[in-house]
């Protein structure tokens, strides 16, 4: 079996660095960098950088920019949903990635709350939200990828059904979750 070796791995929105630490034990690599906008005590295997990833490439810290075109694998677990400008984020991702580098992200899409409400509910509660459909959100990230020279090779959408992900609006909606 062919097992790819990675030079530099970056975990975007790494939290405590749990995923990065798991990767450090299971994937051949030279260096693992975890990036998050909150400071945390990282696991010892992970080099931790505090950085707001909603910033443009030019505004990033010199330490992160020094990884330009050097990162062979970027991962992100349930973090990129917090960064609204996906085009800017994908620009950062494409700047970091080395030739043939890969980006693997797992994230939630936001529920399209407005489409779940009746016009009576919208009126009654004076709800003025701008929410995007699941398809719009998927299209947005795919456009952000292709616009920044990233080739989308796999999209896997799954529906999570758990208590945590249940939304109920005045008992009219049963359950719904969006990933
Ligand atoms: C749900 S946690 C996931 C943490 C980790 N990836 C994991 O799987 O345990 C989301 C993380 O994204 C980080 N985050 C949110 N917005 C961010 C931003 N603009 N820049 C960098 N990190 C951000 C949060 O600080 C948090 O650690």
Automatic annotation (TrEMBL):
<dbReference type="Pfam" id="PF13489">
    <property type="entry name" value="Methyltransf_23"/>
</dbReference>
<dbReference type="InterPro" id="IPR023149">
    <property type="entry name" value="Trans_acon_MeTrfase_C"/>
</dbReference>
<dbReference type="GO" id="GO:0030798">
    <property type="term" value="F:trans-aconitate 2-methyltransferase activity"/>
</dbReference>
<dbReference type="InterPro" id="IPR029063">
    <property type="entry name" value="SAM-dependent_MTases_sf"/>
</dbReference>
<protein>
    <recommendedName>
        <fullName>Methyltransferase domain-containing protein</fullName>
    </recommendedName>
</protein>
């Amino acid at each position: 079996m062919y097992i790819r070796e990675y030079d530099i791995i970056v975990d975007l929105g790494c939290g405590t660095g749990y995923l990065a630490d798991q990767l450090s034990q299971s994937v051949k690599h030279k260096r693992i960098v975890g990036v998050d906008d909150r400071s945390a005590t990282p696991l010892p295997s992970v080099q931790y950088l505090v950085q707001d990833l909603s910033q443009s490439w030019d505004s990033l810290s010199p330490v992160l920019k020094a990884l330009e075109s050097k990162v062979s694998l970027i991962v992100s677990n349930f973090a990129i949903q917090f960064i609204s400008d996906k085009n800017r984020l994908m620009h950062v991702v494409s700047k970091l990635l080395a030739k043939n580098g890969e980006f693997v992200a797992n994230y939630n899409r936001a529920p399209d709350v407005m489409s779940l409400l009746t016009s009576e509910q919208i009126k009654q509660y004076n709800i003025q939200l701008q929410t995007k459909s699941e398809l719009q959100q998927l299209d947005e990230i795919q456009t952000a990828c292709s616009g920044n020279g990233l080739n989308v090779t796999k999209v896997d959408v799954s529906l999570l059904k758990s208590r945590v992900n249940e939304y109920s609006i005045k008992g009219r909606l049963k359950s719904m979750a969006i990933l």
